[in-house]
Design brief:
Length: 559
């Protein structure tokens, strides 16, 4: 009698979406083996929804065996396929393949057009896509959609649309693929499908948004997902890789502390997953630590990410740059992008486009203006191809930064203001503040010190709120520069090098005109940056122009 009461309370709790209470009540009844398949299914779902994934997997396996024993092969196959999908997404392909084969065998002698077979099509399609067989994957996903529509199975339809959307994006049919993903996500928010699908669908949609640089869509669905979760306080929707994607969105929105918390949670939750997956969580922790000036922790995270098989760039090189190791930063990025400053052919892929803006920054700091210009042109081309606002903002800033380093400050101003405006529209405060610092540099050059001070103070407030310690330190360096004349801090040769750099000359041209090696030019620039308390060529050139070093040294020199 007590067991029956517990089952009834568990069912009621499940209907009210009180997942923890449902799990507790049904677990108690399950200890005596009193649960029928419907109740065991709810228990497994409740376990999954409160974050007890391993228990959920074990319960689904039990449910599968129970249904086999009772002769319900289609329903048993359904949960076998569901296990196959989840194990595949968890980075356990061998077990996933085993469950797929077992479920296929169960349906072999039955009607191949039943809805349950659709889940098998999805799992098989994902495996095909992972092995590079896009055509085979697309066929299976379309079959799954047809089975879902025929059976009016909303869960199967949502998963089929999700898989097909990913296939379409990989096939460069991006707009069509995004529409599929939006439809799958809408079914979650509208409550039309089982809540156990929520995390899987959200994670895939955000990943697709990142690959296509559609950050506005990622933010919109994240907000909608947050509202949907608010009515289910027991729900653990963000887990594992989902937490990494959520952390990245929070970082862009300017909530760095919460972003770091989510990344740390992901790192611990993913500790038993495949290396590349957990490596991504380490990389995200490294990014946030770098931005907040925790350089030691950042280096440790990047190293661990690399050890686990996750590319530690561009974060690793940006860390080297922040620590003043410009040559190391350039070497690392050139090794990734190409030996002569040209991106490798594979860098045209979507995953490599995100490296271009940091590459421009690093090349500018090292004095390679021609390489920086080529990378900025590549970024402009990518922005035109994708039409993504975030790429247009990054492109405007990169192109204008190159112009500024070439001594074309007034030409650069329009692009920098455009970048600043775009970052504001995208609600990305850190990027907007960095653009303001560059706008301030141009304003000072043309003598508009009041406007420059306004932009610097605004940027300072953002950096302080975010905890962007390195950027605050750089602004303090700008403030201190007015107290000492750079010509008193630098040697005569360093002043000559800085004057030529401020005139827009490349390291090679400076070396030629001063009859020294490019390596020596780079060493002089590194010393100049350290003495002036700046971290980039652009900032150092701004000092030169403010203090009229260009005019002074061009008058007396032989170049």
């Amino acid at each position: 009698m007590a067991q029956r009461a517990s089952i009834l309370r568990g069912r009621d709790a499940f209907a009210r979406q009180e997942w923890r209470l449902a799990f507790a009540q049904l677990s108690g009844a399950d200890e005596s083996g009193a649960l029928e398949p419907d109740d065991l299914e709810q228990l497994a779902s409740a376990a999954y929804l409160i974050g007890e994934e391993k228990k959920a997997f074990r319960l689904w396996a039990r449910l599968h065996h129970m249904l086999v024993e009772r002769g319900d092969a289609p329903r048993a196959a359904r949960w076998g396929y569901w296990l196959s999908l989840n194990l595949l997404l968890s980075g356990e392909p061998a077990q996933s393949t085993g469950w797929l084969a077992r479920s296929d065998r169960l349906l072999k002698s039955r009607e191949a057009t039943c809805a349950e077979a659709g889940y098998g099509r999805i799992a098989a399609g994902l495996m095909a896509m992972g092995s590079g067989d896009l055509e085979g994957a697309g066929i299976r996903f379309r079959e799954a959609i047809a089975l879902a529509e025929g059976a009016r199975d909303t869960d199967l339809l949502s998963m089929s649309l999700l898989a097909d959307g990913e296939f379409l994006i990989q096939s460069q049919r991006i707009a069509e693929g995004i529409r599929r993903l939006d439809e799958a996500m809408l079914a979650i928010i509208a409550g039309e499908v089982s809540p156990v699908l929520a995390g899987i669908v959200y994670c895939a949609v955000i990943l697709a948004c990142q690959r296509t640089f559609d950050l506005q869509r990622a933010r919109e669905w994240t907000l909608a997902m947050n509202e949907w979760c608010a009515g289910q306080p027991d729900l653990v929707p963000f887990r594992g890789q989902c937490l990494v994607h959520r952390s990245e969105i929070l970082q862009l929105q300017g909530d760095w502390e919460l972003a770091l918390e989510e990344a740390e949670r992901a790192r611990h939750q993913l500790s038993n997953r495949s290396g590349a997956v957990v490596g991504r969580a380490h990389y995200q922790c490294g990014e946030l630590c770098r931005l907040m000036g925790r350089f030691g922790a950042a280096e440790e995270m990047y190293r661990e990410a690399g050890r686990l098989g996750c590319e530690p760039q561009p974060g690793w090189s940006l860390l080297r740059l922040a620590e003043g190791e410009r040559e190391a930063a350039v070497l690392a990025m050139r090794g990734l992008m190409g030996a002569h400053g040209e991106p490798r052919p594979s860098s045209a892929a979507v995953s490599r486009i995100g490296y271009l803006a940091p590459y421009v920054e690093i090349l500018l700091a090292s004095g390679d203006l021609s390489g920086a210009q080529r990378a900025a042109e590549d970024l402009a081309e990518a922005a035109a191809d994708f039409g993504a606002p975030v790429l247009h903002a990054a492109s405007s800033q990169a192109t204008s930064s190159v112009l500024l380093a070439q001594g074309k400050a007034e030409v650069a101003l329009a692009g920098l203001r455009e970048a600043w405006t775009r970052w504001q529209q995208l609600e990305m405060p850190y990027e907007a503040a960095r653009a303001q610092v560059l706008v301030a540099a141009v304003c000072r050059e043309v003598g508009d010190h009041a406007t420059a001070d306004l932009h610097l103070e605004s940027a300072r407030m953002v950096f302080r709120r975010l905890g962007a310690t390195p950027d605050l330190a750089a602004l303090d360096g700008v403030a201190r520069r007015g107290q000492e004349r750079p010509s008193e801090l630098l040697t005569e040769r360093e002043c000559e090098v800085l004057a030529l750099a401020a005139a827009g000359e490349t390291n090679r041209r400076i070396a030629s005109q001063l009859a020294i090696s490019e390596h020596t030019v780079a060493r002089h620039l590194s010393n100049i940056y350290n003495k002036l308390g700046v971290s980039s060529r652009t900032a150092a050139c701004m000092v030169a122009r403010e203090n009229k070093l260009l005019r002074a040294f061009s008058a007396d020199s032989q170049f």
